[in-house]
UniProtKB/TrEMBL annotation:
Annotated source species: Aquatica leii
Gene3D superfamilies assigned to the protein according to its UniProt record, in alphabetical order: TolB, C-terminal domain
Keyword presence, DNA damage: no
Higher taxonomy: Eukaryota, Metazoa, Ecdysozoa, Arthropoda, Hexapoda
Record's protein name: Regucalcin
Keywords: Calcium, Cytoplasm, Hydrolase, Metal-binding, Signal, Zinc
Amino acid sequence: MLVLLLIFTIVIYAFAFDKPIVHQVTKPIDHGEGPVWDPRTNLLYFVDVYEGRVLSYNYLTHKLNAICLHGNTTPIVPSKSNPHVLIVGVERSVFAIEWTGENIIYSKKHLVTLSNQFPTSRINDGKADKNGRLWVACLGTMGFESPNGVSINEGILYSITKDTLNYPLPVIQPVNISNGMAWNKANNKFYYIDTPTLSVTEYDYNKESGVISNPKIVFDLTKHESISGFPDGMTIDKDDNLWVALLDGGVVIKIHPTTGDLLQIIALPAKRITSVTWGGPHLDILFVTTSQHGLSPAEKIREPAAGSLFAITNLNTNGLPMFYADIIEEIL
Ligand SMILES: *[C@@H]1O[C@H](CO)[C@@H](O)[C@H](O)[C@H]1NC(C)=O
């Protein structure tokens, strides 16, 4: 009897251990986006876009701090030069801020303003590549923003290096809502999401020049009846599988970028899932940002956790170390 009980317990344990576990990490904010993990400080940074806030969650102490930058704020990309210097987008401009992750910001320096030809556009997403180039996208806005409510074709994806800081290079143009970006382990493929296309596009990527070519759709959301919503933020794991947040879909999906197979679907208690990134000391925790922006009062009652930062564990894989932006000299 005891042996049976023991076997039963082990089976249950193994089963539970294999299943992803979703943890709510913070209380809800308005519109969480752009999570990024810095292993130098054990901080998980993310933004509250429309509230103009940058937040830092300390994985070791569980402390959450925030600063306000005034204006739509995203993305946040740690700088290579110094763990306390962060590159951040506010409206159409890129700034460097000096911040230790506490509640005081020490300095803020304007670096460049993008898309002057589209004055109502704003920066939407960004990431650094292995060479430290900053890839940052502008989005055409017109009043209330929704996946269908942007000025069409006014988006531009730029890349910025130290040398092109004053003249960022348009890389993909036009786009509608430039979002998820990821590079594979071999650093010769670039994965990209323009949200309204409901798909993930793969480009060949020249790691020396940063030039992308040969776009091809590798995942088409409309071919999968089990999921809905809009592809938003994205990351990649050590096996080169992609993890995509589905805005208004309530799930994070894992997809195989060469076969296009939908490998895993993980539900969260919020339908507006905005982005994902790997973090934690072993890069095996998938941090997920969500939003309550635009939810009706009834939906907010149904989804009390919407807008929280979540962490998913037990995924049996992990991420690759993130890349730092290398676009400024050490001293601000
Ligand atoms: C942007 O959206 C419009 C309207 O849906 C569409 O006609 C256009 O082709 C889209 N642009 C791109 C680059 O996908």
